[in-house]
Amino acid sequence: MESGRKPYLIGIVGPCAAGKTTLTVNLNKYGLTARHIAQEHSYVADMWQRITNPDVLVFLDASYPVTMARRKLDWSIDDYNEQHFRLRHAKAHANLYIFTDNLTSDDVFKTVLNYLGINP
């Protein structure tokens, strides 16, 4: 990261298997401060703000079939929909929404960097 650039605290939310952990690792390796916020597991709608209160909130999303293919999750469509319900507040306040079904982890990483005005 170039000197003089504002240090962002980046929060990352989304349903299971949307790519949150991979993006968090990639951003941290790049020298940015990113936190995976497990909002999808909380009944408190604004827990993402209470825990992290990020400068930039990134919402990663993926379809139910893709989440099943990525992680072989033991969950139903109802569980998936419940996670989206729990994420509704974060989604409404997200600075950046990325649907990851047809993207590589590198595509997602570059999309976030571009949003931040950082040329990789």
Blueprint (SSEs and pairs):
Elements: E1 9-13, H1 20-29, E2 33-36, H2 47-51, E3 56-61, H3 64-71, H4 77-86, H5 88-93, E4 96-99, H6 105-116
Parallel strand pairs: 1-2, 1-3, 3-4
Q: What is the SS-derived class?
A: alpha/beta
Helix content: 40-55%
Low-confidence stretches: none
What is the overall pLDDT average?
Answer: 90
Shape: globular
Straight-line N-to-C gap: 9 Å
Main pleated sheet: 4 strands, parallel
Name the strands of the widest sheet in spatial order: 2-1-3-4
Count of structural domains = 1
Radius of gyration: 14 Å
CATH architecture: 3-Layer(aba) Sandwich
| CATH fold annotation | Rossmann fold
Q: Strand fraction band?
A: 15-25%
Q: What's the count of strands?
A: 4
Tally the helices. 6
The CATH class turns out to be Alpha Beta
Please provide a written account of the structure.
The chain has one domain: 3-Layer(aba) Sandwich (Rossmann fold), CATH 3.40.50. The radius of gyration is 14 Å and the shape is globular. 42% of the residues lie in helices and 16% in strands. The chain is built from six helices and four strands, in the order βαβαβαααβα. It is of the alpha/beta class and 120 residues long. The chain has a four-stranded parallel β-sheet. The model has no long low-confidence stretch (mean pLDDT 90).
